[in-house]
Amino acid sequence: PDMKLKLMKGLLTAGALAVAAFIGQANAGVIGLALVVDGSGSISGSNWTLQMQGYKNAINAAIPTDSTVAISGTQFSSTASVFQSMTTVTGANKATIANTFSSQGQSGGLTCISCGIYSAFQDAMSSGLTFDKLIIDVSTDGGWNVGHDPDGGPGTTGTAEWAVANGADVVNCLGVGGFADCSFIHGTGAFSVASADFNDFEKTLLAKIRRETGQNVPAPATLGLLGLGLLALSLYRRRVTA
Q: What is the pLDDT, as a whole number, of residue 1?
């Protein structure tokens, strides 16, 4: 009997931890997703259209409307500019934000990835939002050739390390084609993904955004512990009332 009681208490403890984790995830703060888009001249007009249509479709498909995610859009080439300021996504504004991406003209020019990181970071910091996690998400079909090396140290403005040192959590990257250089990713859990070409871009981006914003979804192991905890609680109550 004592062993059974200890087992049930252990399951109750595991269940309580799982419930706490679940509640913590459900009540997580805003995830900031700063989307930094390559608009350099190496991208053809048709590929630019595929890229920006991919952003529109991925935002519509993957970004939740429960105010847990905020997104921004920054285009970089020889310089960078923010075309969509960091905004919390709701059911009322998601379509408008998505359309802002697909309606952007291409700036052309060289490839200043550090300019894009810097502009997106500054916009996020001036948004007035409190971030549970701030993700700077760069897409590019090449490597930097103007500005600072985005893979430089934390003392150089616009590098991935600089962004993380100053408050971003991670700088991730989506590389398109065989010449893309995503070696600059930085931060705990930072990652890069590869797309063969711009025809494949939307599918890759969609999976990437879902990975980046899926932090509010309990992992299968957590759900299993939650179920065990509820079962143990039921058995324990039956034992007490018997």
A: 54
